[in-house]
Specification:
By secondary structure, the chain is mainly α. The protein has eight helices and three strands. The protein has a three-stranded antiparallel β-sheet with strand order 1-3-2. The chain is elongated, with a radius of gyration of 31 Å.
Length: 210
């Protein structure tokens, strides 16, 4: 149920066309909610049918012109009710974590490459978020709306920072040589009693010994 509310939020911030919404979801909105082009257009149609949004009238109607949408009072009321309702945290379901658990029993072939790929993606996303922070939240912007939006972005930044640290740790763990148990270390002949080398050393005493 959250995608329609993300769209209502975005349209209340700025009336937009479906294409503009897609671009915003790819950039700034993407740090808290992702959606594909098809999902956004399907949801816009549902919201319009529900009476939550409407297409703005065009001054110059033209075939194929992009429709811009705005939120109607019913849509604002729906978003207000949803935002005020409680919601429990959702448990994490990440395929990468499941893959690592599987690798513990079937082997780690291909796992390093996948971890490195994820690390590069998270680093790129963090760079994008820092760029948004620099552009949209310069020092001195301290309204309540700006503070709340900045906090949402900071959540995305902290999450990307966590994944970068965790993936780096995971790659270091894969690179580490497993420690050998003391009883598996190779012994030189004669180093310890009970080994063939030690017995041979006692049997062949040096000349002059009794």
């Amino acid at each position: 149920m959250s995608l329609p509310h993300a769209i209502l939020t975005a349209l209340l911030e700025k009336p937009s066309s479906g294409l503009e919404l897609t671009r915003r979801f790819d950039k700034s909105i993407g740090y808290f909610w992702s959606a594909t082009h098809q999902q956004i257009y399907r949801e816009l149609a549902r919201l319009e049918q529900s009476g939550f949004i409407r297409a703005l009238p065009s001054a110059v109607p033209a075939r194929g012109q992009k429709k811009e949408y705005e939120v109607l009072p019913a849509g604002r009321a729906e978003l207000t009710e949803w935002a005020a309702a409680g919601q429990d945290p959702k448990p994490m379901r990440d395929p990468l974590l499941l893959r690592m658990r599987a690798a513990a029993v079937i082997g780690t072939d291909g796992l390093r490459d996948e971890l490195e790929r994820h690390l590069a993606l998270h680093r790129a996303q963090l760079t994008t978020y820092h760029g948004i922070e620099t552009k949209d939240f310069p020092p001195g912007r301290g309204s309540e709306q700006d503070r709340l939006r900045h906090l949402v972005l900071r959540g995305g930044i902290e999450l990307e920072t966590f994944w970068i640290g965790w993936l780096t740790e995971a790659l270091d763990a894969l690179a580490a040589e497993p420690e050998k148990a003391p009883d598996t270390l190779a012994a030189e002949p004669g180093d310890a009693p009970g080994t063939p080398g030690a017995e041979q050393g006692r049997d062949q005493a040096a000349p002059g010994q009794t």
